[in-house]
Write a structure and sequence with these properties.
The protein has about 350 residues and is of the alpha/beta class. The protein has helices at about 10-25, 50-60, 75-80, 85-95, 95-110, 115-125, 130-145, 145-155, 160-165, 165-170, 170-180, 185-195, 210-215, 220-225, 230-245, 255-260, 265-275, 285-310, 325-335, 345-350; strands spanning about 30-35, 65-70, 205, 315-325, 340-345.
Length: about 350
Amino acid sequence: MTKPRHSPPPARRLALLLVAALLPALATGAEVAVLGTAHLAQLQPAASPAQQAAVVDRLARFAPTRVCIEAVPGESVEAFAADPARYGELLSTFAMNAVRLAGEQQVRRQRTAAQARAEAARLVEQASLDDMQRLTLVSLQLAAYEPWSAALNWSALPAPARESAAATLGLAATERLDAMSASDNEIATIALRLARQLGQRELCAVDPFADELGVNALADELMPRLSVPAVQQGLEALNAEQAKHWHADQPDGLLALLRWMNSDAWARADLAAEWAVFDNADGRHDAGRRRLMLWHARNAEITARLAREMAREEGGRTLLVIGAAHRPFLQASLRALPWVDVIDGEALLAP
């Protein structure tokens, strides 16, 4: 019988078989969980501290070695701040705390953002920190445009150390750190509390938000489509369904809401209400489809940054807390990686 023209040579066939045999083992090498969440600062009525703690305790069973958040990375903030004409709106919307708190700490510590970032990394790796060292770490993380990591360490300080910190950090910084660590949003109530409970000293930010500038540029073209009654009705129906799943009077009410928001049923409903409306049946590459491409670009950037965090020595079990709309797209990208084991968020929150 004639040998097929495109059959790989024996050595290559053996290599392919070996790779195929190794894939199941590689799939257990790194674990990542993407927890899709409602924006809790907008949840009505607000979740109680006990309900928030129930979510944190459930996630602690996963014991992530790295906790990531939907925030602009410090290096990106630094780069954006160098071009305020282009990125000023982005910074004022998504990174205002980073911008307004960094300058004073850079002056107080006589460090550039890059120097502060490197020095903070060394403190993060130390076996233990006393209160003064942790306060120094807070200052360095602020100088490096990483306010959420600073808020994490600020919240871990005992009350007397925080009360006397104005001389070291300045009153504006201490007041803002108090406000951030007490915020109702999911970064403070879930990610920060979980990382503190696990003894971690930094939160990794993975969303530069840069593609939102492109979305803003399409706003005038998108508005006619978004104002169609059917689109508005679809969004209202999704919000009504969320309200039905939010049992604010139950101790596990937030757990139950987030379980639903991490389900396949929620993903299908959100796809229909929030994203399919931008796709054209006639195939025209108009503003709607371009908006979808920018959404995919943003999620691809988040995936890339998440992978870089997983590449760190402590990144073997990574958790990302992010707005629920991102979750199905990120999971699909991560599941394409045979050496990554994607842990389902719905299962993480299961009883």
